[in-house]
Specification:
nuclease (chains A, B), homodimer, 3'-5' exonuclease activity (chains A, B), 5-stranded mixed β-sheet, Nuclease SbcCD subunit D (chains A, B), Metallo-depent_PP-like (chains A, B)
């Protein structure tokens, strides 16, 4: 059995206000091309199909088209589960009809115990669930954490294990020891939402969703596929793609296939003059989502508008030396009353521009402050 | 070809804040029972499956269960369209899989021109649409109204007519000359949303949705099924049900089958004392949705709470003689300045209680007003 493992599509997600649907369709087309090239027997999607429990109409249109193409047109069997971002009930619509064409979309805990058998493999499709669901399903008041729930879940799954088949778990949670990036929603704090890797050892492969980096977990038999796209700056250096998994009689192997983003998430650094010079911006892909680190200290009037004219997808501007200045500012506030007028102006000028007054400027200020002072007295 | 015609389910609709899901499931079960008893070949649902474009999770759960039962379990072919209350895109999910089991759910105008053929009949499933959709679809800037759009739509449908078959149109709009009740949303004003009956004469039967009363339109070849439940007080006296339609070679016949509401919408009238007496309330079905007409004129402290203790589903309380009093009030306001103090109190008392002051009460007021007046002077 050879399958493609992907997850965390988050259809409808926006990146700092930018709609990603075009990128999502492009990544989907690449996934489909890989599935065809690799001649997989099925496509596994491990949760978070949508980004929100109530997706927009545009997101639904895109998703509907994707599943039609994948399952009805290209005839791939699909094994999918709902993630924490999906509304299980909303996603459930159509499910009982989907199975007629081998599109298995599990959204309820009770569905996880009826494995889907394909080739030499039993797939257990376990949707994202809260401990309360397991408490009710197992009628066990003791279950308070996902770890406790998973002990019962896996025990029950193993009752269905056929010894001559490979066993694959498709699930969507945080495996203890994994590394998070910025774009995953925190579910709970205090480790209540984590599952120890040791609990998963009975499976030949665990196709995970939830974390967006493929390297979030290094294990012999478990992998996050990661999201098909970079959803935050912290994922800037991640390689995005899918796993091609082979469950052979002797062992299970997996190989990563990279996706090429339609528009990448990148960071550029430099002074405002440099970044807005044609020599510079002609040398990079301006269509990317860009986080800009500015080295300037001076005030730049109309900065964002100027940058956006050149770079249409700015996802953030950072002043590299801004923080230092802000610290200084806090310090000065205490001293303000003890400073001479010209010193105050000097400090204000350097906070705003990052530069000091020239001698000429200082002299001009002294003269004019003096004149104002006299005029006030003369009243 | 024998089919059941229903429409305007409005799953998730509330009646004055009361959830109707239980009533909706009950009505659905009756519809299914009729379909079985009458041995129909298909069930037609002419739009407004949901009450809102974004239905609640509870409404989706109920609807999902209904369509599974109707189509997958009871194996009825289903011919359905989206109405103006449905989000066509949201409802579309699963559609391409539904057809595998003869569940045809059209949500887009372009789908209407591929008739579904069953037995001796061609069904044209025309979802609710706005003139703009027809303008784009026909690439015709002249189309501004539904009537203009329908001329083109029907012309195009007739190209598909097979002469030896019966032709049924399933649609969701306001046919000119129909009578509205209170629970239909007004779409537009000025008649832009109406279709003349004459346009529909090519069809053997037009299964309409949109208006909630089965008698809204009296025509030889067209019927509203009406909603399965009463959705407003104005529908109090309507009979709710479904049509059983036979498209025979010679002629098309239809017969109405009534539904019995789990809880009815009723109006009761009487004095507060009577309505809260056990003799009275034991004689009626207190579980119904009740609009109460009170004949009292007096103030009744804590009235709603007292009524709701006896009648759990009060959808409105009307003071039958309230309006008269309010008119009087407006008249008095002009005279207030010219009235003696005791007259003012008398008027206020009668406005609030509906009764006049007794002689003893008048005397008491005069004495005390006098005392207050003297105390004021003595200050």
């Amino acid at each position: 059995m050879r399958f493609l493992h992907t997850a965390d599509w988050h259809i409808g997600k926006k990146l700092h206000g930018y709609d990603l649907l075009e990128e999502q369709v492009d990544a989907f087309q690449q996934i489909l091309a890989i599935a065809k090239n690799e001649e997989v027997d099925a496509i596994v999607v491990a949760g978070d199909l949508y980004d929100r429990s109530v997706p927009s109409v545009e997101a639904i249109e895109v998703f509907n088209q994707m599943i039609v193409e994948m399952n009805l047109q290209e005839k791939f069997p699909v094994l999918a589960i709902s993630g924490n971002h999906d509304s299980s009930t909303r996603l459930e619509t159509g499910g009982p009809w989907f199975v007629q064409s081998d599109f298995h979309l599990n959204t309820r805990l009770d569905q996880a115990f009826q494995p889907v058998e394909m080739g030499n493999t039993q797939f257990f499709l376990l949707p994202y669930f809260e401990p309360i669901s397991a408490r009710l399903f197992f009628d066990n008041e003791e279950i308070r954490t996902i770890e406790q729930a998973m002990q019962e879940v896996i025990k029950k799954m193993k009752e269905q294990f056929k010894p001559d088949m490979a066993h694959v778990l498709v699930s969507h949670f945080f495996v203890a020891g994994s590394e998070k990036s910025d774009s995953e929603t925190k579910l709970m704090v205090g480790g209540l939402d984590t599952v120890p890797l040791s609990l998963l050892e009975s499976f030949d492969y665990v196709a995970l969703g939830h974390l967006h980096g493929k390297n979030a977990l290094q294990a012999e038999n478990a992998r996050y596929s990661g999201s098909p796209l970079k959803f935050s700056l912290s994922e800037m250096n991640q390689k995005k793609g899918v796993w091609i998994v082979d469950t052979q009689p002797s062992e299970t192997t997996f190989e990563f296939k990279e996706l090429t983003p339609l528009r990448d998430v990148k960071q550029i650094e430099g002074g405002f003059k440099e970044l807005t010079s044609q020599t510079f911006y002609d040398s990079i892909n301006r269509e990317n989502y860009l986080h800009i680190q500015l080295t300037d200290r001076a005030v730049i009037p109309n900065m964002m508008n100027q940058l956006r004219k050149i770079y249409p997808r700015v996802i953030g501007v950072e002043r590299l030396f801004g923080r230092e200045e802000r610290q200084k500012q806090t310090e000065t506030k205490k001293e303000v009353k003890t400073l001479a007028p010209v010193e105050l102006v000097d400090q204000f000028f350097s906070e705003v521009t990052g530069e000091s007054l020239t001698q000429q400027q200082q002299r001009w200020i002294e003269e004019n402050l003096g004149a104002i002072h006299q005029a006030e007295r003369g009243k």
